[in-house]
Protein 1
Amino acid sequence: MTEHKLQRGSERDLGWADEAWSRAEAKIGRNARTIGAAFPNGTINGRYVRGPAHDWVAGFWPGMLWLAYRENGDEELRCVAEACERQLAETLQTYDLLHHDVGFMFSLSSVAQHRQAEASGRGGDADAKRHALIAANLLAGRYNPQGEFIRAWPNWDGEDHAGWAIIDCLMNLPLLHWAGREIEDTRYKHIAIRHADSVLRDFLRPDGSVCHIFRYDPESGTPIGSLAGQGYAADSAWARGASWALYGFALSSRWTGEARYREAALRVARFFVSQLPEDAVPYWDFFLPEAGKESMPRDSSAAAIAASGLLELAEQLTAFGGAGVEDAAWCRTSAERIVQSLCGRYAEWGDEHEGLLRHATGYYSRGVYVDESLIYGDYFFVEALAKLRGRKELFW
Ligand code: GLY
């Protein structure tokens, strides 16, 4: 059992979070035996579909195992997480299959493993650290200096993606910050900051909503305009996109200390929370046509990501003091409201369904994992619970 003292950020009774944590931790332990060193993505008929190690979601399962391991020290969880990490490391040879989401993939596997080994007093994990540094180099290599953005994807699907950047990439930037710090090379930080500033300028709207994809001329770098991507329309507000923006800007604040990222995260947070239905879990897009909206699926993954992002933003606002302290309290209360609803109405604690959170939506327009469980929804739900119980350290 890892020895630590948890410091809660709230005086309110969070017994419900302890209870939910115990149930989630127990389910992760049982899933570790049935899923093993594989890469669950979304559920179909109650069972997670396992995918390849080069999929963008491949880091979330080992990440979840590390979240549980650092609380209970169960060696079985560590072995499975390490076996996942070895498979992820092999994908570093398959250059054409990788893209900007190496940040998601390697922050929650290789970086998490290295950090856990550091925290256990073993001086880190040299192999895992090297894998994460290689991944960071691949990510840095996707930077377009003319347009000051990180290119999202290769030209797959026969479509030219050379000038495409996407909102999710804010969550990949911590890998660059971490790598630059580890090897004392400021170039990584400069790339991360330039990309985040382009997102601030081109993705974030005055009302706090964001687009999913923004296109630049890859040759001149000129901003062209937004695309719908996984959202309902180019000018709509894909719910998970908003949650990536909220958490991603909060993490940019964590790594740089810059107020403009906290302000951006808070603007997105105010928008996100103001648009929530009564049970605090959004429909898959915030700007769906009113007619028929209530029969549209929810996205519990967006709720879980936003809740964990709100808790990070609360940390940032508290750390910098001043007027932000009141905003921090609001962020925390909002996060608690969302997680409490997820625990009470969306969580599946038993084994008849492998996922932890029901009613998540992967890619509505393509009919991919609609109203199912998603491994990233589960990850951020567990991460938010850990934070509510006082765990401040992140893998990001
Ligand atoms: N990063 C892709 C998604 O959120 O579905």
Protein 2
Amino acid sequence: MTETVLLIGGGGREHAIAQSLAQDCDLYACASNRNPGIDALAEGFERVDEADADAIVHYAEDVEATLAVVGPESALAAGVVDALENVGVYAFGPRKMDARIETDKAFQRRFMVENDVLGCPDFETFYDIEAACAYIDQYDGDVAVKPAGLTGGKGVKVTGDQVTKEEAKKYLRTEKYEQVVIEERFVGEEFTVQAFVANGEVRPTPAVQDHKRAYEGDEGPNTGGMGSYSDAERFLPFMDDGDYDEAVDVLESVVSALPDYRGVLYGQFMLTADGVRVVEFNARFGDPEAMNTLPVLETPFLDVLVSARDDNPLPALEFAPTATVCKYAVPEGYPTNPESGARIEVDEESVTRAGDGLLFYASVEEREDGLYTSTSRSFAIVGLGDTIAAAEAVAADALTAAGDGLRIRHDIGTAELVERRVDHMSQLRG
Ligand code: GLY
């Protein structure tokens, strides 16, 4: 039987998901923006808000979906998985209660303590912003200040890194979040491990390193992620197999405590001098990390989805021994003051001419005369190669596809930046 899969979400992550599914099923998609890459792969594309569970259910019934895949956290937070389940459509993504591992950072930390999940920082949660400010003042060391709810990856402020303690307090007083988590700052190198999860099973994927800061050299404000790289093996040059295994153990202990969890579990880890610590969990694929992972996944993604739905063991995952480098092209001014409405040229042919280059569209507006920027990330280029350096060269070549009006962090995946990570870690580990 041919499966009919409904994909929810219209970013670069979802374009990568669509690419990995389209050949094996009848694919339909819905998102608030019409992603031209997904649109070209899908048999139908409906413009709906990703958090509008009723509209998504309606579309799923309309196309007679036999499966759904949820990309963005906004849909998980809105209970889209639960709503689809109520009408008999299995959605690969956690139900609203389990998605709190991402959507409620206070829950996330309490859950770690209650279930002895390793790698949890010292933390306190606050509804009272003045009490949070007093805690920042009296805490002996730097802190990470986190709104408890979703902020698109842009809400965290770290003292001693991006801001001073005074600036962190001013930020809290200005933003007036309902609840915040103040926690110990970790120092080290960040990495992501994502795993497919269903029926109590965990199938991890290779580690990836994202780059949150807007400008080269890790300067500037936090973004949704400017780009990322992975190596031809499961760990990254600044870590070893044991560090990777530690991260996977953490993901497995989360799933032991949340046995009904299904979908992708994303661990953002910090490799510190004292081992692996948990920066946060997400309840879905990372964006950009999905664009590193799915192109090297040799096991059909559809097999994972069908096994999950049918309560069968998840397939063992095979990955090509290939490194990847992903770089996002974003509008000028992103993320603080993005220039939307700029006409952009994307030379799709020059991406593929560059060899192992892939193009994933994200947030662009298609008009009669071409593509225009929105306020969010526009498109990503992914280079594949035997080494990170080779993949970076492919991505750099393919980036000639990005015309004016766009900004790129050219340093992502370069030998210089990767060596800096390795040196940083050697220094910390002595
Ligand atoms: N890459 C960060 C995120 O997806 O939240």
